[in-house]
Design a protein that fits this description.
224 residues, two-stranded antiparallel ribbon, five-stranded mixed β-sheet, alpha+beta, 22% strand
């Protein structure tokens, strides 16, 4: 989930005027991004502690694995440009809530909501926004629970509330999203007469049904 941007990619995307503006922003951003990295790492530790606690109480880990991603200065720059905002560090702080991101891959749908419920109970964590694409999938079939939290990070002489985006999804949802990303990245819509958009929607519905059936089995195991 890590992002990297090469010099050629930066030069290819920006005009001469924007490149100069970007370079000025990049210098400032590189001094600020370590704070987002710290917030992301701290949030990942919290999630791992929750996972360990649930495992000790329920004899099963709800989290399969966690992926992390820190946006590059170029990604932040382009997002602020799309938003029509002046490219400043303050606007990055105010308007780009997904500079730091964690993707939490769970075994079952109920695990997703259990973890979310635990996060809501942490009184030093602020839930800024929630988008439940599991309850209401996107038109293309995308399913995931998106959360923006603000976590307090202590530095040498200050404390800052820094936003982190957390995506909670199941293994099956992650598999679907990976396939959708590959097809989108390669700009593939039709493969040998197959409409990939329709097929992805169908796959999403099938996965949802399978997950519901698997959840029944999981509850049966837990009751035992």
């Amino acid at each position: 989930m890590d992002e990297e941007t090469s010099f050629d990619e930066i030069s290819g995307k920006l005009t001469a005027k924007n490149l100069k503006k970007y370079r000025a922003f990049e210098k400032l951003a590189l001094g600020t991004l370590p704070k987002y990295q710290a917030a992301m790492q701290q949030m990942e530790v919290r999630l791992k502690i929750l996972d360990q606690d649930m495992k000790s109480r329920r004899h099963r880990s709800p989290i399969h694995h966690i992926e992390s991603r820190l946006k590059t200065p170029l990604s932040v720059f382009e997002k602020l440009e799309r938003y029509g905002k002046q490219v400043t560090i303050q606007n990055m702080r105010d308007h780009v809530m997904d500079v730091a991101g964690l993707r939490v891959i769970c075994s079952y749908v109920q695990d997703v909501y259990n973890i979310f419920e635990c996060l809501q109970k942490q009184d030093d964590l602020t839930i800024v926004a929630v988008k439940d694409y599991i309850a209401e999938p996107k038109p293309n079939g995308y399913r995931c629970l998106h959360i923006i939290v603000k976590i307090a990070v202590y530095f040498i002489d200050e404390k800052e509330e820094i936003p982190v985006e957390i995506q909670l999804r199941t293994i099956a949802m992650n598999f679907w999203a990976s396939l959708e990303h590959d097809l989108k990245y390669k700009a593939v819509r039709d493969i040998k007469g197959i409409n990939t958009v329709d097929e992805l929607r169908i796959c999403s519905r099938v996965i949802e049904d399978v997950e519901a059936r698997m959840q029944i089995l999981a509850h049966a195991l837990e009751s035992e």
